[in-house]
């Protein structure tokens, strides 16, 4: 029997998780990963439960991994996008959420381009009807907790200890929900987080969250245990934050020469999709220090753990090698 403090709890951001709960998620995710590499992935841990994925913003990795996570655990999974819903006829997000709750969905996984959308979903459902749990799959530039958790699992499996480690986060910090979740999550686990990118995209205000805004690439990468390279979000960022993509690559992109500043066994992460040749060079994206593809695999395991822990009392998990 496990002490499951996450049962019935919505996961809206890294603020909502304690260090003990993060450790529990990573522990269960490691067990779930055994299912992923097995010959038979279908289980019945969430049999009779329903998961609704509300993805109002385009996604490949997050949406697919939540869908597979629910199905591997035996839940009934429904995917709803804005273009395929009654929202094209004028239905509001509020009405869509209330409809899903009225249909007795047990969990709602939501991604939206608006900051605070997951909190909004939680509040709307909570005040009007029996509340399913809500999991934030990315809300604008606010947070993306499951992405940070899968990064943590990847680093843990690679042998990195969070306490005292140095994580360098490079790129478009201003528009990044991943950066904000990384800062909150990794600092909570005892890590030091350094940020670097164009001054227009890395405001000093991030230091109020406990991160270090580095003044140079050297300061950010020197002695780093891991580097998380963020995608230049041209769909969010208005042009004008830096001169050209070529200039960005030359001044702020991670390449093999710059990576030498970090520790010899430094792990390279990227939330995807990658703009190869811009924020990350081709050789770094695919060399032996890159754990990017392992992140994708771990994303399914982490999301399985989140669904399992929030939707069950967590007392029946028996997974053997």
UniProtKB/TrEMBL annotation:
Q: What is its EC number?
A: 2.1.3.2
Q: Which GO terms describe its biological process?
A: 'de novo' pyrimidine nucleobase biosynthetic process; 'de novo' UMP biosynthetic process; amino acid metabolic process
> Which family is this protein grouped under?
Belongs to the aspartate/ornithine carbamoyltransferase superfamily. ATCase family.
NCBIfam families documented for this protein: asp_carb_tr, PRK00856.1
Protein name as annotated? Aspartate carbamoyltransferase
What PANTHER family does the annotation carry?
Answer: ASPARTATE CARBAMOYLTRANSFERASE, ORNITHINE CARBAMOYLTRANSFERASE, MITOCHONDRIAL
Q: Which SUPFAM superfamilies match?
A: Aspartate/ornithine carbamoyltransferase (SSF53671)
In the record, which residues are listed under signal peptide? Answer: none
- InterPro entries documented for this protein: Asp/Orn_carbamoyltranf_P-bd, Asp/Orn_carbamoylTrfase, Asp/Orn_carbamoylTrfase_sf, Asp_carbamoyltransf, Asp_carbamoyltransf_Asp/Orn-bd
Question: Could you say which residues bind carbamoyl phosphate here?
Answer: 61-62, 111, 144, 147, 272-273
Which pathway is this protein engaged in? Answer: Pyrimidine metabolism; UMP biosynthesis via de novo pathway; (S)-dihydroorotate from bicarbonate: step 2/3
| Ranges of residues in domain Aspartate/ornithine carbamoyltransferase Asp/Orn-binding | 163-309
- One GO cellular component term: cytosol
Enumerate the Gene3D superfamilies for this protein: Aspartate/ornithine carbamoyltransferase
Keywords of this entry: Pyrimidine biosynthesis, Transferase
Per UniProt, L-aspartate binds at 89, 177, 231
One MF term in the entry's GO annotations: aspartate carbamoyltransferase activity
Aspartate/ornithine carbamoyltransferase carbamoyl-P binding domain boundaries: 9-157
